Protein 1
Amino acid sequence: MTTMTTQLPGPVRRHLAALRALLVFTVLLGVLYPLVVLGIGQLAFPAQAGGSLVTADGRVVGSSLLGQAFTDARGNPAPQWFQPRPSAAVNPDNKNDPGYNPLFSGPSNLGPSNPALIKSIDARRAAVAAFNGVPPASVPPDAVTASASGLDPDISLAYAYLQVNRVAKARGLNPAVVRALVSVHIQGRTVGILGEPRVNVLDLNMALARLH
Amino acid sequence: MSTATAGWLQAGLLVVALAVAYRPLGDYLAYIFTTNKHWRVEWGIYRLIGVNPDADQKWSTYLRGVLAFSAVSVLFLYGFQRLQEYLPLSLGFPAVPADQAFNTAASFATNTNWQSYSGETTMGHLVQMAGLAVQNFGSAAVGIVVVIALIRGFIRSRTEQVGNFWVDLTRACLRLLLPISVIFALVLIAGGVVDNVAAAHPVTTLAGGHQVIPGGPVASQEAIKELGTNGGGFYNANSAHPFENPNPVTNLIEIFLLLVIAVSLTRAFGKMVGDKRQGYAVLAVMAVIWVASVAGISYFESGQHSAAAAAAGGAMEGKEVRFGIPASTLFTASTTLTSTGAVNNAHDSLSPLGGGITILNMMLGEIAPGGTGSGLYGILILAIVTVFVAGLMVGRTPEYLNKKIRPREMKLASLYILTTPALVLIGTGVAIALKGEQAAILNPGPHGLSEILYAFTSTANNNGSAFAGLSVNTVWYNGALGVVMLLGRFLPIVWVLALAGSLAAQRMVPASAGTLPTHRPLFISMLLGVVILVVALTYFPAQALGPLAEGLH
C-alpha cells in the first residue's frame, strides 16, 4: 500500500480495494478461466465444443443438437421428411419464419389456461392428423405443443411412428423399411432412468436421405 | 419402465450423488474458512487489492466490504454493457440501453440473474465472459461468505470480529468455485455443451432452408451459472437450449451443481459449530421441503391438470422431449428452491398449481437448500425464530447453539423475515395498479396476476427465473425490478451480518436442562411448522388470487 492511499478517507480506500479486487477477479475468472476451458475443450472435445455439427454430402447441414425446419419453399411441412415439433423460436418481424431460428430461442410462454394456446393445440392436432392421414386422437402431445427452446431436436417415438406411412408414400418406399429406420434411431433413457425415449429428427432424416 | 418409476429413480440418483459429495465438500468448505494458511497466489492478490489478510473485521466493517464490492460490481458491469459497441468480441451488438443495463447489472451482482434481455441478440462474447460470468463467481461467493460470518457469530464469544471479507471472498472464488467450475465445464463440454468463440454462422439445412448456428463460450459459463446458483442463461432459452443442456445426463449434472454447495454448507455449518447433528437437522428440513416440492410439481405436471394439458394429451407445452416430465420437474423444483432461476422448461406454461408451487418455493425464502450461502442463512434465521417461539411456549429465554436469543437478535430476525414479503407484495400491488404495467401481461385472467407475482417474487428472492410471458423489458419494470433485486439482496445481508456481530459479542451460555435440543425430530418439525406458518401464510392471499384461482377454476 502506498502512503498516498493510506491517507485517503476510509470509504474511498474501501471502494478502491473493491475495484482492485473486481479487476483481479475479472482477469482470473472472466478471462483466464474461460480461456483455459475453451483451450482444453477445443483440444479434447473439438466436435462437441464446436456445436456437434453434422455433414451430408460433404457440407455442414446443421447441428445434431438443434432441431431444424423441414419445410418446402412456401413454408409448408414437406411430406418427404419427418417433421419436428411446433416451434416458438420465430423472428417476430418475419412472417415467413418457419421456426427453429436459433437467434430467437425460447418457448411460447402461453399460460396453461390461455384460450389462444388451447386453440392452437386443437388446430395443430387437426393439421397433423390430416397431413399424416391418421385419426386426431392418435396425435401425441409433443406433436401439438411448442418446446421450451423452440429448437427441440427430438420427437417422441409415437410421433415418429405416426409419420412413417406418410413419409414412405411421399418417397415411394416400403413403409416397413422406413419403420425399421425409425427403430434403429430410437434413443432410450440413459442408463435406463435418465430422460425420455426419443428420436432425433435430423439424424433420422439424414439416414432417410442416404437410403436413395 | 414407466415414466414415473424412471423419474423417481432419476431423483434417487441425484440424491445419491449429493450424499457422496456431502462429506468431502462440506469438510472442505469448513476447512477453507477456518485455516490460517494463505496460498502464495492469495498473498499476491491481497497485495494487489491492498488489504491485510490477517486483520479480522468487525461486522460493520465486513458489511462495508460486501457493499463496496457489490456497488463497484454493479457500476463496472453497467459501464461494461454501455460501452459494448467499442469492445472486442461484441459481435456487432450495440450498447445495451441504460435501463436494461442497470437491471442486468443489479441482477448479476445480486446473484439473481433475472434477464430482461435475450442473450443471443443483446450480449457479445466479451460482456458475457468478462462481465456477467465474473459476477456469477462474485455474487455466489458473497452469499457464502455472509453465512460463514454468521456461523462465526455463533462460535465466537465476546469479540467484535467476524472474519475478513477480502480473505473469505478470495478463498470462496479461488479454492471453491473456480476448481469445481473448471472440472464441470469440461465435463459439460464432453457431454455436448458448446464452447467456442464463433459468431453465429449460417448453414443450408438438409431440406434446403437456412439456419444460423450460434456460438459462444457457453460451457465455462454454464458450470458457474449452476454451481453459483446464478441461473443467467447464455441463450434466451437458458438450460432448455440444447447448446446449454444437450441431454439428460448434462441435465442431471446441472441440477446436481445448483444444489451441491447449498446442501454441503449444512455439513460445514455442523462441523464449524462443533456439532454435526445441528447441520443434519437443518438439512432434514431442507430435504423434506425439497421432496415435497418435487412430488407436488411432478404430480401436477403428470397427467392432465390444466386445460392445455387436457387438450394436448400431456403437459408438453414448453418442455423438451429429451427431458420429458420428470427431468423437467426435478429441475424446476430445484431451481426455484435455490436462488438459481435457470430453467430447462417454460415455467409460464406449467399447470396452474405446478406453477403455484414454484412461486411458493421462492416465497419460502429459497431455503431448501437455497442459494449458495443465502439458503443457509435464511434457514438459520428461521431456526432462531423457532427457538424463540418454543421459548415463549415454556417461558424460558430462548437459546440457539449456546447463544441467547434476546430482543436485539429477534428484531434482526424479524426484519429479515419482513423484508422480502414487503418487496414482493408492494411491488406486485403497484404494478397491478398501473395501467401501462398491466399491458405487459401476456396471458389473460388470474394467470396474468401470477406472471407479475412471479416476477416480484423471483427478483425479491434473487431467484431470476420468470413466467416469461410478461414483457419486462420496459423502463418501469427494468427500474422497479432492479431496485427490488438490490433491496432483496442487501437488506437481508445487513440484518444477517448485524446478527453475526450481535451473536459474536455474547458469551457462550452452557446448555441446561431447560435448553431445547435443536437437533431432534421435535425441533425439526417445529422448524418446518415455522417455515409454513410464518412464511407461506404471508403470501396466501396473493397465491389465492393467482395460481389457486386459476387451478381450482
Protein 2
Amino acid sequence: MPAVEETLDTVRDATQGAYKWGFETDIEMEFAPKGLNEDIVRFISAKKNEPSWLLDWRLRAFEAWKGMEEPRWPAVTYPPIDYQDAYYYAAPKQKAAPKSLDEVDPELLKTYAKLGIPLKEQAILAGVEGAGESPADGRLPVAIDAVFDSVSVATTYKGRLEKEGIIFCSISEAVQNHPELVRKYLGTVVPHTDNFFAALNSAVFTDGSFVYIPKGVRCPMELSTYFRINAKSTGQFERTLIIADEGATVSYLEGCTAPQRDENQLHAAVVELVALDDASIKYSTVQNWYPGDENGKGGIYNFVTKRAACRGKRSKVSWTQVETGSAITWKYPSCILQGEESVGEFYSVAITNNHQQADTGTKMIHLGKGTRSTIVSKGISAGRGQNTYRGLVRISPKAKDARNFTQCDSLLIGDLCGAHTVPYIENRCLTAKVEHEATTSRIAEDQLFYCRQRGLSQEDAVGLIVNGFCREVLKELPMEFAVEAQKLLQISLEGSVG
Amino acid sequence: MLRIENLTAEVDGKPILKGVTLEVPDGEVHAIMGPNGAGKSTLSYALSGREGYEITGGSVLLNGQDLLDMEPEERAAAGLFLAFQYPVELPGVGNANFLRTALNAIRRTRGEPEVDAMQFLKLARARMKELSMPEDMLKRGVNVGFSGGEKKRNEILQMALLQPKIAILDETDSGLDIDALKIVADGVNAMRGPNFSALVITHYQRLLNHIVPDRVHVLADGRIVTSGGPELAHRLEAEGYAGVLGEAA
C-alpha cells in the first residue's frame, strides 16, 4: 500500500471512533455474479471441485430454503434483507491453495498483521516457515486457519499436527482430502433443513475450518480460525466441522472482524461439533464484527447456528463466547446431550452498545442419563442497545438424574438500553434437577465514584466493573485471549457513561 | 496544606454547607466533629468531587492547586484520599487487581514508573502485615463478603499504598470493635509525618484517644462553629454538642 494511503488509513482509524478493525484491504478479488439461484450454488460447488453428493446436498438445501421464512421470534428488528442483492462468492485472486505462508499474497499477510490478532499469533504466523516451531517465550503455539471472505487463505502448523494424526484444514480441503469424514458428519448435527439461515448456509457455504482429532489424542496446541469479511456487498457463509473421536481433547478459538461500512452485511455461519465417548471440545469465540456506527448505520448481521452433539458417554462440550460486535446477533450455541453422563457448558458475555441488538443464548437438550449442563450468561446493555438472553433447557423422560444450573445476569449502563431474559424450561423427568437464577443490576454511581476516588478514570472504572461482572465467563477463555477479550469489552463500552 | 475558604454546597437544591473555612497545614491531623446532619459527609464528598454535591461558592486549594476544578480522579492524583464511611463492593474485581490498578493510575499521573505484579505483591504484603490483614483478602473481590472491620482496614491499606498528601477519614470508626479501632488508628499514626495530613471526621471522641488530633473543629448546620485543641473533644464528650454549641452560640 502506498505510504499516502497508509497515512490516510491511520488517520481514518484514529478519527472514526472505537472500531479499530474497520479498514479495507485493497486486493484483486474474484466474484460470482450477484444474486442467489441454483446456478450460483452450482458455481460455488464447481469452483471448489466438489463431489456430486455434496452438490446434491447443497441443492437440496437451496430447495428447502426457498420454501422457508426468516425467523420472526427473535427480539430484534431490521429492514427486510434482499437476498438477491449480495455476492455469495468472493475470493482473493491467488494461485491455487498456497502450500506455505511464503506463497500467500503479502497483502493478505499484512491485513492479518494489522488486525492485531494477539501478538503471539502474529509471531507464529510470521515464524511458521522459520527455524523453530515454538515461540521464544516458551508458551504453546496456536495453529491458525485464516479465512478471508469466502476462502481459507492459510493454515499454520499443519505439519506438526499431522504427526499426531490431527487434521486441521479448511473445509474445502477436507472435502478433497478426507471426503469420507466430511460425508459421515456434515449436516448430522445441524441438518440442511434446520432453519432458514442454516439452510442458506448449507446451499452456499464457501469455506470454514475442519478439525478431526483421532482417538485418544489430546491436541497439543490451541486451534484457531480468524474470519475476516473484506469485500463489499458480500455475505460470509462459513461452515465449521469439528470431530473429537473417542477420548480426544481439543480447544478451539474463533475471532472475527470486518471493515467499517454504511451497509449491512450478512454473516450466516454454521458450526457443528461432534464429541464421541470421553471426548472433550472447548469452543471459544471472540466475536468482534463491525457493530455499525453510533447512529446504528451499517454493521454485520450475525445470524449463526452453532450446535454440538455430545454423542459419546462422558463426552463434554464447552461453549464460551464473548460477543462485542455485530449490529445484530442471533445465535444460540447448543448442546445435544445424548451420551450418558455427557456434559454441556455455555459461558457467554454479550455487549450491546449504541444501536446494537443481541438475541442470544443456548439450548441444552438432555437425552441421556446423568447428563449435566451449566449456563452462565452475562448481558451488558449500554446506549440504546437491546440485549436478550433466550435459552432452552429440555430434559427428556429418559434423562434420569439430569442436572442443569442456569445463571443469567444483566448489567445496564444508562437508561435508554434494555435487557430481557427469556428462559424456557421443559422438564419431563422426575429425577432431574433444574435451577435458574437471574439478576439485573446497574453500574452504581457509588461504584464509579469509589474507583475514581482511587485515581481511575471514568472509562477505566467502567472497564474494571464490567470485567468484574464478566469474570466467571472470562476465566473460561484460554489465557492469552482472555486478556484480549478484557480490552475489547472496555473498547466496546467507550463513551457509554457520562 | 489544605485550605478551604467559605465553601458552600448543596444537595438536591438544598444548601448543606453554608460557608466552611478551614486550614489543615502539612503534617497535622485535624478532627471534625458534629451532630447528625451537620454536613460532615457532605464536606468529605464535596472535597472529593462526588456527583450530586453541587459547589455553589468558595474555594479549596491543596498545596496551591485548585481542587474544585478537577475530576475526582485528578483530585486523587493530586494527593487527596477519602476513606469511605461505607466502602463499596465491586463483585468479581479482585482486590489485588483493584489496588494495583489504582496505584498505577496515580503513579502514571504523577509521572512515576508503574509497579508490576511482583513488586506490588511485595508492597501490599508488607502493609497488610502491619494492618493484621490476612493475605487472602488480596484474592477476594473488592470488599465483597468483608466484615465491617475488614472493609475499614482495606480502606487504610489503600491509603497506605497510595500515599496521599491529605486523607479524609469519614467516620472510619463506625462499626469497629476496639481491637479493629486500634489497628486502624495505628495505620493512620504510622503515616503521620511532615508530608501527610488528615481530616478525621467522627461522631465520637473514642477514635481521638487513638489518633490524637492537633486541632478539633465542630461543624454544625454547615459551618465550623468552634475550634480548639484535643481537649475540645473531651469537653464535647462530657457536655454534649448542645452544651458546647449553646456556649459557642
Protein 3
Amino acid sequence: MTDASINASRAYEDEASFGDYFALLKPRVMSLVVFTALVGLLAAPVGVHPVVGFCAILFIAIGGGASGALNMWWDADIDKVMKRTKGRPIPAGKVEAGEALALGLALSGLSVIMLALAANVFAGAFLAFTIFFYVVIYTMWLKRATPQNIVIGGAAGAFPPVIGWIAATGTMSVEPWLMFLLTFMWTPPHFWALALFMRSDYDDAGVPMLTVTHGRRSTRLHILAYTVLLAVLAVGTAFSSIGGPLYLAVALVLNAMFLHGAWKITRRDEDDSEADNFKVERSFFKLSLLYLFLHFGAILAEALLKPFGLGGW
Amino acid sequence: MALHKEHEIHKRRSGLNKGVGILLAAFVVLIMVLTMVKVTSSGFQFPETQEAQN
C-alpha cells in the first residue's frame, strides 16, 4: 500500500497495528492453551530438555493462535453482530478477512512442522489434527448446525494437554485423556452460564446456542447435568497417576462449590435472574475460570512435588 | 496530499515492522539454540554418509 493510496482506500486510523494481528490469535484462549499444554508436558513421566519443552509449548501455542485466526476469518460475519466480538480486528475494520486467513494458514503450517521437529512427529500430527478439528469440524461445520456446538468446541480446546504429553513421551496413555475430559466436560457449563447472561448476543447472530434452541430452562438443567458428570470425573482423576492428596483436596472443595453453583442456577427462573442481573450465573462463570485453573494447577503441583518424594500417592 | 514524515501512520507502520523484525530475529535464535540442544544430546547420531554406506 503506497502513501498515495491511503486516502483512497481507507482512513489511516483503521490501519492495523502489531497488536491487531496479535489479537487475531486470541491471546486469552492462547494463555489457557499454554497453561494446560505445559501441565500435560510436565505431568508426563518423562523428562524433557527445557529448551525442547519451551519450543513444544511455544509451537502448541502458535498452533492454537493460528486456529483462532482461522476462526475469526470464517466467523467474521457473526462476530460483527455480537456485542462480545464486534471489537475483534476483522469486524472493527482493522484487518482484512483474507489477511487473517493467510496468517492462520501460515502459522498452522509453521507450528505443526516446528513441533514435529522440536518434539516428535506424533505431536506435530496431533497438533495438525487439533487445528483441523477446531477450524473445519467445529467452526465451519458444526458451530452453526447444532446446539451442542459448545460441547464439540470444548473438545478442540481440550486437546493441548494431550499434545503436551505426547510431545514429552511420544506415546499416548490414559492420563492425558483424563486431562482432556476435564476441560471437555468443563466447557459446556462454563459457556452456557455465559450464554445465560449474554442473552441477546447469540440470538442476534443466529448461532444455535442451547439457550435459543431448547430454551433457558433446559440450559439450566444441562449445566447441572454436565457439572455432576464433571465432578465425578474431576474427583476420580485424583486416584490416577497424575493425582494425589493435594489434587484430591482441591477437587473436593472446588467441585462442592461448583455443584452448589449449578444447583442454584437450576433452582432459579428468569424472573429471579433478571431481578439481580444474573448475579448467580455471573459468579458461576467466574468460579468456572478458577475451577479449571486450580485443577490443572494441582496436577502441576503434584508433578513438581514428585522429585521430592511428595507428589502423588 | 503528501504525508509528513512524522505522521501517525509512519509510527504505526514502524511499530508493526519492528515487531515483525524482533519476532523473526527471536525465531532465528530459537532455532539455533534448539539445534545446538539436539546435536549435543546423547541420543544424536549423524546420518550415514554415502562413503560409509558403500
Protein 4
Amino acid sequence: MTATTLNTSITVSRPAERRPDRHGELDDLTLARARRGERDACRALVRLYQRRVFALLARMLSGRDRQSWVEDLAQETFLRVFRALPSFDRNGPAKLSTWILTIATRLSIDELRRKRPQLHSDPAAPVPGAIAVAPEQADDLLRRKRIAAAIEAAVAALPADNRAVFVLREYHGMAYGDIAEAVRCDIGTVKSRLSRARARLRQALEFLRQ
Amino acid sequence: MEHTDEAPLDPGLLAEWDPTSEPPHDFADLVVQRWSVESPLTAADGTSASTAPYIGGAAESSTGADMGAPVAWWKASLVGGLAAGLVAVLGLAVLNPAGSDTMEPPEPPRVADTAAAPAASMSEDVAALEAQLAAAQAELSKLRALHASCKSSGLAKLPPTGGDAPRVQLAGRGVVLGARGAKVELRRIDKETLVVAQDLGSAEYQLTATETVLVVTPAGSLTVRGTSFTVVVPSEGEGEVTIRPKAGQAVVATASGTATLMAGEKVAIANRAEPKAHKRRKARSKSRLKAGNKRRKASAVMTF
C-alpha cells in the first residue's frame, strides 16, 4: 500500500490503494471503482489476487514452459474478470476471490483439454515418482524435493477436473459447493474426485512409510 | 458437516509442493494496459476517459505511456463528440425553448448551479452517452466487418452507369452486361448502390416486385423477376445457367420463348458440345450412364 505523506506529517491513503478487508477481499469502494473501469482500482484488484491466481495456475499446469504459460493464463484470467466484473454480485454467495479462482480454474481446465493431452489418466497406472525416490538415503533437502516431485507427478497424472478439485480443496481451502460451481459438477462428484485424488497422492507418498 | 471418503492429507507434506513463482513486478500494469486496449479506462482521479487529458492524441495514464492509446483515443473522441453534441442540443433547448428566430446571448454558467446538479441526472447523462457509444461501436463494427468482407472477396463498387470494370458493366438500372465467361456478383447496398464483383461465379441482385434484371451472356439473355436470385453466367458452350430464387418465381426469357422456373431449377445450355460428350458417356459403364440420364432429366434443357 502506498501512501502520500504531507508536510504536516498527516498520512493520507489513496482510495484505490486501500487495504483489503479482514477476509483478504477487495474493499467495496475499490471494487465499485474497478467496476467503473478506474485504472488504479483495476491495478489494486490485480495486485491483491495475483498471487492466488498464480498459485492455482502453477499447480494446475505443468511442463517446461510453465512459467510463461502461467503468466499468459493469469493475464487472460484477469481480463475475463474485468469483462465480467459488472455482473459480479458482491452480496452473492461467492466471495470475489472464489469467483476469480473459479474463472482461473475453468480457464486452466479448458487450456489443459485443448493443448495438453492427459498423460496418466488410468487410475490403475503406477504413479510416477513413487518408485524412483530413496528417502532413507537422502538428506532432508533432497527428501523434501522428492516429496514435492512425487506430489507434482501424481497431481499431473490426474485428469484436469480432478486436478482442479484437488488443488482448490487442498491448497485454496475452497468449500465443496464452490468447487462444484467452479468445475460445473455435483458436490458428490467433487467428493468422489477428491477421494480418488487423495488416494493417488497417498500411493505416491507411500515411500515415506518405508 | 462435510464428508469425504478419504481423510485429508497431511498439510505439511502437501506444503512441500510449492511450484508457485512470484508474479512479475509489473504484472498488474501489464494486465491493466491490456484491459485498456479492450475497454476505455477511467483515469486515476475518477474522471472518465472522455475527459482525461490528451497529449498528442494519446491518453495520458497515471503510470506514463499507454499501450492502448490509439483505441482509447478514438473511443474517447467519440464520447467527447457525443457529449459536445448533447451539450449543444441541451444548450439550444435551454436558450431557445420557444423555437423563436432570435436568440438571446447566453448567460455565463453559474458555478453554484453546476455544483448543485443532482447526481442522478449526471448518471442518467452518463448512461445515455454510454448507450450512444455502444450503438456507435456496434455500427462501427458492422462497417468494419463489411469492409473486411469486401476486401477479402474482391468486391468493387461501381457507379450505376458503367465504370472501369473491363468485363462487367452496369448498363442502366438493373441491367448487367457480362462478357464471355464473365462471372458476376451483384450485391445491393442500398436503394441506389450495387456492388459488382467479377469472377466470383454468381450474380446476386435484390429485386423489388416490379424490377427486372437483364443478364446478357454470349449464349443469350436472361430476364429474371423475383425477390432474390442468383445467376451463374456461363462460358459459351459449357456449364449451366442456374437460377435459384430465394422467394417466388423467376422468369427466364430466351430466344425460344419464356420459361418460368421455380426455386432450385436448372437451365442447361443447349449449344454445348453435346454429341462428343454423349459418345463418351455411351462408352462408360451402365450405372454411370443411368446416373447421367437422371441428371439430365432433372434439368430443363432450353435453347438460347
